[in-house]
UniProtKB/TrEMBL annotation:
Protein name: M23 family metallopeptidase
SUPFAM superfamilies (UniProt xref): Duplicated hybrid motif (SSF51261)
Matching PANTHER family: CELL DIVISION PROTEIN YTFB, PEPTIDASE-RELATED
Source domain of life: Bacteria
Keywords (A to Z) from UniProt: Hydrolase, Metal-binding, Metalloprotease, Protease, Signal, Zinc
Signal peptide: 1-21
Pfam families referenced in this protein's UniProt entry, alphabetically: Peptidase_M23
Cofactors (names): Zn(2+)
Domain M23ase beta-sheet core: 252-349
Keyword Amino-acid biosynthesis: no
Phosphoprotein keyword on record: no
Amino acid sequence: MIRPAFLILALASFAPLQAVADPPTAHLPMAFEATIEPGDTLDSVLGHSGVPSTIRAEAALALSGVYDLTDLRPGHRVEWTAASGDPSSLTRLSLFVEDGVEIALTFDGPIAARRLDPPVRETDRRETLTLDGTLYDALMARNAPERFAVDLTALLAGQVDFRRDLKGGETFALVWQEDQLPDGTIAGEPRLSYARLELNDRVLELVATEAAGPVIVFEDGEAVQRSAAPILGARLSSVFGRRNHPVLGGVRMHTGIDYAAPVGTEVSATGAGRVTFAGTIRGYGTTIDIDHGGGVVTRYAHLSEIAEGVREGMRVKAGDEIGAVGATGLVSGPNLHYEVRVDGRPVDPKDQDALPEQEIASADDLNALATWRSETGFIPLTDGERG
């Protein structure tokens, strides 16, 4: 019985391809596979395998209609077949990229490309954690999204200091949605709907009625703030206070907090206000300032760009996109510098009074709060029971 041969490309060393058949045949197609490594492009992978430059150019042109090849990342896979093992006679090529998506090219006629999205199933997740260590450790122990450690710290920063206020033994309840692929892996980003932190003296609850919108924070059932994280899913890379400056050297005051994230990551206004500056400031690079009233101004710096339509004088709401992460100004790498100023003086964004209270809870907010409390089995104490 004749079987097609399969060849795995080792991209670390681009040795000449050797196709092995058992026995050799001149009729059956040959299958090839490669995993994208740092520094690779689709053109370089196919070129090292002997695919002619004209075919590589035609394939790239066809792919451009459905996929941006600059988004190809290490770990993505390329699979292709060639008639009789001849690299110039491609019959099919597929890119397997993030979230189980396949970008397929066919060569039976004019080269055509199409995107094949796998079926996904939205699942609800609920977890109740006991914080005996860090929030990150508690999330990892329950296979919960690690990004929530950063997102929740930012969203609840005005009400609790995760370093000083948590003594251990606190209860943290979470409700979120995620998309599951047929093989059980998770596609895309999780969507947080509800979080509850039970402290010794109070209960903080966070409700998100829109997946990408701002959240409202309740303290003991009373709305205290509507806000959005300046950036979601990023790593906190530097905190407020004195530090060794990564570019200038020496110990200097760091007047905000930094979130490390790739260039282009969306940056959002943390609260409602009016844009008072959108331009370039020496050291800060491309910068946006938003006046929230009461002497409070937030600053978003080192941006790669300012969102279309954002200009001085316009009003924004919590969660509105205002720009994108960059590496402008004095920086050692891409990050968002987020700063809060009160009466012109920089303050720690994690201080409880750093941002003013936002709008009151809507009927949708209150309905969502009641729903998630019920579904997580939480019965709030009455004033008499609390006293």
